[in-house]
Design brief:
With 263 residues, the chain is α/β, with parallel strands linked by helices. It has 2 domains: 12-214, Spore Coat Polysaccharide Biosynthesis Protein SpsA, Chain A (Alpha-Beta Complex), CATH 3.90.550.10; 216-257, no CATH class. 30% of the residues lie in helices and 20% in strands. The chain has helices spanning 12-15, 29-35, 48-53, 69-79, 109-126, 176-188, 217-231, 244-249, and strands at 16-21, 40-43, 58-61, 84-88, 94-97, 104-106, 130-134, 148-149, 157-160, 192-200, 235-237, 254-256. Strands 1, 2, 3, 4, 5, 6, 7, 8, 9 and 10 form a 10-stranded mixed β-sheet that branches. Strands 11-12 form a two-stranded antiparallel ribbon. Strand 5 (94-97) and strand 6 (104-106) form a beta hairpin. The longest helix is centred in the middle third of the chain and has 18 residues, at 109-126.
Length: 263
Amino acid sequence: MARACFDYSKTLEEQIALVIPSRGRAHNVERMEALLPGASWAVPTDEVDAYRDAGAATVIGEPKAFSSMAAKRQWILSAFEAPVVFQCDDDLQHVLCLVGRKPRKVTEPEAIRAIIHQAAVCALDAGIVGFGFNRNPKPMQFKPHDFIGMTAPLCAAFGITEPGKKWFDHSLISREDVDMTLTMLLKRRIVWADNRFYFHFGDTWSGDGGLQLVRTKKRDEADVARVARKWGANVSLGGGNRNAQWATKKRGAMSIRVPRRIT
């Protein structure tokens, strides 16, 4: 079967669907519409009016209440006909560009869209199914000579060039994006992470709405344990897979350990 490639006879907007999964966070609409104008919001049906009243231009109601974020993300892939579906969490603050003498914030919507589009075109033309960006904002750890990650976790802001396939484990409320990345690495060997850019979402695992409505400590520990058990030494959550309870305390820390040789 021939792989998908970027169709240069069509516009970027025709080929890349920008989607913001959200729930209980209509108060984020104004900022997100300023950063990603034209993106579609995927929200529970009973919240569609609230998001529209808050200023969301395009709102799509979910056909049912999803039991997990993974199930919702998989539905989003099937809800759009574009060859590429890019999902961005609803609490984006800005994009940090790590290239140059000092990092700089990017808030211009045209620039953010160009960053996403460039990554999508590279992934499509390289035949790579998943693409995303840096998850480490520290400039001292940025490698300007080696800025494309092939085994990095795709989290919070990522695109999929084959949305017609199943990429998510529906049993996971959290860590579904790390599990997705490892599934892609297992089936397709590499992903595309442009480490020149860091999508900053503020304080994670906090605030109201979103996953906070369904997340519990017990369920979170169960998700960590499931991912750690499923992928073993290939993934590190919370700085190490010592146990699910300890890993949950280090919620922001994660790494994928899948070596890839060039030859």
